[in-house]
Amino acid sequence: MVTVGIDLAAEAVRTAVAWLDWSDGRARLVRVEVGADDALIVDAVMGAAKAGIDCPLGWPDRFVEFVTAHRAGHVRVPEGLAGRAWRRDLALRVTDQVVHEQTGLTPLSVSADRIGHATMRCAAVLAELARRGQPVDRRGGGVVVEVYPAACLKRWELPYRGYKRAANLGELGRLVDRLLEAAPWLDLDDSEALCRASDDATDAVVSALAARASALRLVTVPAAEQAEAAGTEGWVALPTAPLKSLAASRCP
User: Fold this and answer.
1) Bridge partners of 34?
2) Per-residue pLDDT tens over the stretch 55-91
3) Which of 42, 109, 145, 217 has its CA 20 to 30 A from that of 48?
């Protein structure tokens, strides 16, 4: 099977796509593209068994309701709440709050941080997939699943901070070293140098690994009371098994 990882940014220049081919207990990185445009992303997803996208798939429901109410001039602050307590559910999705509870990490707010620009782009990609007959289940039940590389790395007991940007290439190299030590079945092939030079490429590889975990059902899924919100806001699939399980297990 082939899993795809997409480190999605607002513009193509900081967007990377990675393809992992899984066979006989091994995974080979067959291709990595940095500077990926929408057409390449859509084609990659269409050809994958599972694709992990590192980007929110939607906005908080309460934020959408807030903007709608504001436009109509009917915003009301809930009784007994003020300041951050009131704004929390506007800034963070249900899944963001679950990620924080389970990992201690807080994803960027899609409604209050610049990552909202990437989600606008993501929305267009999801719409194109639907037009091609591949509608997306934002809860992760279809070919696309939302992933969070930092949380994956932390759960797999790998370095998850301090490797971003050109000033931290040494840390990025150490992350790649640790990843290959923890996953001797992972072959980065001719793209290893690119992964050591580009954190976008490495995040795309981690996203492809997370997509494999999702395909194996070794990730968190929404509880019954979270399913409705996850269907509109998106759901970050957190790994629930060690990294070695990805090669040892077979898809159901």
Assistant:
1) 16
2) 999 999 999 998 998 889 888 777 766 667 778 889 9
3) 109
Interval 171-187: pLDDT, tens: 999 999 999 999 999 99
Tokens linked to 30: 């067959």
The β-bridge relationship of strands 16-23 and 26-34 is antiparallel
Check: CB of residue 106 under 8 Å from CB of residue 242. Answer: no
Q: Measured between alpha carbons, how far apart are the two ends of the chain, in Å?
A: 12
d(CA 230, CA 58): 9
β-sheet bridge partners, residue 18: 5, 32
- Burial grade of 163 (CB within 10 A; 0-12, 13-18, 19 or more): buried
- Token pair, residue 167, equals 């000033």
Q: Are 208 and 4 within 8 A, CB to CB?
A: yes
Q: Which residue is associated with the tokens 């990552």?
A: 115
